[in-house]
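Many groups now describe folds with learned vocabularies. In that spirit, our science desk offers one protein's residues alongside their backbone shape tokens.
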Amino acid sequence: MTYNRALMACKPSSVCDTVLTYLRYAALRFSPANAFRHIIAAYKAAVLLVLVSFALALTGCATIRPDMLAKGATAEKIVLKDGSTIQYMQYVPASYHGGKAPVIVFLHGSGEAGSDVTRVMGPGPWEYARDHADFPFIILAPQQWRDEEWEPKKLKEWLDDVEARIPADRKRIYLTGLSLGGGGAWDWGITQPRRFAAIAPVSGYSNLKTPCKLTGNHIWAFHGEVDDVVPIRDEEVLVSAAKACGIDIKYTIYPDGNHNAWDATYANPDLYAWFLEHKKE
């Protein structure tokens, strides 16, 4: 009876072939009492092997095949090592048909924090991506649970995980963000200066205030001249310091523009062309 159960359990899997051969051998070689013990041990081994094979198969599927990527926007989430969860929106353009794709990592502003992850698809590059059939970028946009500063350490762990799941061209990963996310873009870029091919903070600032660490990177910053939320001076000092360090940086100021510098920025095709001009060595 035990042998028959083992046969039924193992029939779908080639992993069991060797175990079944051993079951036949045990039934012939040993006395009934000893054979039964060997059969039980072999049955347990077969079950363990099947479970291990299944676990390895799941691990192998962590990277999504290009033909399995859902086009358009999908809500995703991952659990970090500390047990906290980061949910994010993933956008795969209609133009994607396989191969490694450039990636834009977008950090939202304070108004999009919360538990509804679709809120991150408000201001930002989304409208431009939807309206242009040749838009080539995958967009990844994490969400903050609360209106608080972005944490580069957690963002790094999140992106490490997500990069392994998608066909990302790791030489063409670009970082941008607006307002709170503009500050996050500066701080994350400074913390990991070799991670991104180019960085575009919008209405940003930096708590780290050490832009010279970005030497060798490419930056394009944007700000409204009369911003009354994040004063333009907060970003001007970063741009001036970056220029003094010899960093390749562009700075666009919108005359008479207030805090919303993002509508004009993300509607500008030059931004996306500029991203693609840069590639990590």
Q: What stands out?
A: The radius of gyration is 26 Å.
